[in-house]
Amino acid sequence: MPHHDAAALVLAAGKGTRMHSDKPKVLHTLLNEPMLGYVFAALEPLFGPAVLTVVGFGADQVRRAYPGREATFVTQTEQLGTGHALQTALGALRKLGRAHCLVVNGDTPLLESDAVERFLAESAGADVAFATITPEHPGAFGRVIRDADDRVTAIVEAKDLDPTKHGDPREVNAGVYFLRLEAVTPLLDRLTNANKSGEYYITDLIGLAREAGLSVEGVRCGDDVNLMGINSPLELAEAEEHLRRRILRGWQARGVLIHRPELVSVGPGVKLEPGCELRGPCELYGTTSVARGAKVGSHCVLTDSSVAENALVREFCHLEQAQVGPECQVGPYARLRPGAVLEQAARVGNFVEMKKATLRKGAKANHLTYLGDAEVGEKANVGAGTITCNYDGKNKFRTEIGAGAFIGSNTALVAPVTVGENALVGAGSVITKDVPAGELAIARGRQTNMKRRNKAS
Ligand code: UD1
Ligand code: CA
Questions:
Q1: Span 238-280, pLDDT tens digits
Q2: 6-227, what's its fold?
Q3: One of 3, 242, 259, 367 is an active-site residue; which one?
Q4: CB-side exposure of 60: number of CA atoms within 13 Å?
Q5: pTM
């Protein structure tokens, strides 16, 4: 249910120094989806369009990755800290006209809508609330300081922790906050950067709110790994593995048969029907779908592709923006590039590459073939080693092969060219002119046999 009195703000301006990368941290991927996409997916059902994002380091890259959200980005030109990020976005937030704001760090991709909703419910009525967790190793997290009455007095960043003063609290700040904007606005001006990092911390709002007599709530969320922040390549790998298992278990529970599940990666946007079968190692990403009865063999990578009912994708195939129809057979070792379309019961065999090419019902290209910018009619057969020569160095041209046609092995089809229905092309031909329907075309040097000279027999 959308929260009509709250907006959401994602903090995503940081560089992610510990990732040692020129790419903004929030664009690093888990299962081929950027971190930030997961955060959006968790927030959107609750906040609809009222989700703003603070970007800074690599802002252009982040904006380009989400063109549909252009109006919802706020730029923090200098990354002076999480508190400064909130200050930067405050104007845009207030314009949304909502009394409250949920703030989340953009580096928490395991966050789920349910968890956010529970946190919001627990936070209701507070001026300032934040989620706390108690991980095994509190490491670099901000520590939560409570008084004798168990009331939060402050968050102290790990760097600034003074054990003699603060002890060694195990409870830490998860980086998810609920703020009543009216209450925190005056406090924002009072943030300073007088700390070990020289940054304006959003976490200092907690102490300031407490001093100002506002109601402050540290909502305990157990040792919830879903609130884990990602700061390093190791944490990214751990989170990705966690997510991979979560997604896989979901599909297994819904009746997908998975062999060697420890070696199967399925992205969050993939759709699998009960009764389909996957064999690890394999990877399915983007908007890929696999229908009931279809099988995907080991060592396959499928991106934004569909595999229809009872189709078989054998081992070692690469599919990208390809459509495999019902009862088709693909591979082993096939490469289907964007725009490859196989209609019902079509077959593509080993070392066949297709790009912007269609095999109509029952058509076959079983061995060592390149089909680019081509259409192959129903039940046509494309022999081993056939190449559509679709590119003259400047432009691309189409090849049309009619229904029932037979293209002999090692044929070069120099596009633009059409082979008519039921036509036959002799093996080894270089076809530069259209072949009329039903005719036989042979275009190769004629063979002559003659006696060998200077050879004793
Ligand atoms: C932050 C919290 C810490 C908490 C932890 C939880 C602060 C000061 N500390 O630490 O208490 O335990 O998260 O994961 O907030 N960002 C900006 N602008 C900036 C700086 C950062 O937008 O100027 C963004 C980053 O892109 C990131 C998020 O804010 O997504 C958190 O920043 P990060 O540097 O990762 O903070 P932590 O050190 O993890
Ligand atoms: Ca972090």
A1: 999 999 999 999 999 999 999 999 999 999 999 999 999 999 9
A2: Spore Coat Polysaccharide Biosynthesis Protein SpsA; Chain A (3.90.550)
A3: 367
A4: 1
A5: 0.93
